[in-house]
UniProtKB/TrEMBL annotation:
Catalyzes the reversible phosphorolytic breakdown of the N-glycosidic bond in the beta-(deoxy)ribonucleoside molecules, with the formation of the corresponding free purine bases and pentose-1-phosphate. Homohexamer; trimer of homodimers. It catalyses: uridine + phosphate = alpha-D-ribose 1-phosphate + uracil; a purine 2'-deoxy-D-ribonucleoside + phosphate = a purine nucleobase + 2-deoxy-alpha-D-ribose 1-phosphate; a purine D-ribonucleoside + phosphate = a purine nucleobase + alpha-D-ribose 1-phosphate. Belongs to the PNP/UDP phosphorylase family. This is Purine nucleoside phosphorylase DeoD-type. It comes from Erysipelothrix larvae. It comes from the Bacteria. The active site is at D209. The record marks R220 as: Important for catalytic activity.
Length: 240
């Protein structure tokens, strides 16, 4: 496929950095670019899925929205990896806490993504493939979070296909029993696509809701600075 692709308007691979931070919300991508990056250029506005490249602490990094759900996000993951020579994608999203010890705005670093999505299910016939991140990125994120004094948790997440789906209580209870930290909608697709293409991926989340409370869309867009800063610091360590 030639570039620009049907979904990304950048006319050259040079417009996109080797590491891309990807929130679901394009307005969060815009916020990160305007708040943290210098010498910013916009490389994508197709379908309103904003993408920017700039510099953080002297290192080049891009940030772009992915949309909601694995089918939408996988289009961008695949095109960035395959056609724009991106080496690493770090998902920076929101998630719902599933363990009672996880608080609002805590950071979750996903070691694997449980899912019933057809993107994963059935691809390997009788095998339940386990989508996992790049270990080097994972270790960097944990070390940075520890150095920052962030309240963070490391473990598995659930990538669901339906935001308003009805997970059976027995299934949810079993996931919690087996240590699943949070629920979200994209990271299984990211980890699968990265493994398929021999690229690097990591997913970080800020807990935006749990059984007792939730935050507003404006909070989700702008206030998750600790997660953003962890991802930016990981990205600058990746950039040569």
């Amino acid at each position: 496929m030639k570039i620009p692709t049907p979904h990304i308007g950048a006319k050259s691979v040079d417009e996109v950095a080797k590491t891309v931070l990807m929130p679901g919300d394009p307005l969060r991508a815009k916020y990160i670019a305007e708040t943290y990056l210098t010498d910013v250029t916009c490389f994508n506005e197709v379908r309103g899925m904003l993408g920017y490249t700039g510099y953080y602490n002297g290192k080049r990094v891009s940030v772009m929205g992915s949309g909601m759900g694995i089918p939408s996000a996988n289009i961008y993951y695949y095109e960035l990896f395959s056609f724009y020579d991106v080496e690493s994608i770090i998902r920076i999203g929101t998630a719902g806490g599933m363990q009672d010890y996880i608080g609002l705005r805590d950071v979750v670093i996903a070691t694997a993504a449980n899912t019933s999505s057809s993107i994963v299910k059935g691809k390997f016939e009788e095998i339940n493939f386990a989508p996992t991140p790049d270990f080097g990125l994972l270790i960097k994120a944990v070390e940075i979070a520890k150095d920052m004094g962030v309240s963070y948790h490391v473990g598995t997440v659930l990538s669901g296909d339906e935001f308003y789906g009805e997970l059976k209580k027995e299934t949810r209870d079993k996931l919690i029993q087996y240590g699943t930290l949070a629920g979200e909608m994209e990271s299984a697709g990211l980890y699968m696509t990265a493994r398929r293409l021999n690229k690097k991926a990591l997913a970080l989340f800020t807990i935006s809701d749990n059984a007792d409370s939730a935050e507003s869309s404006k909070d989700r867009e702008t206030s998750y600075t600790q997660m953003m800063e962890i991802a930016l610091k990981v990205a600058t360590q990746e950039e040569k």
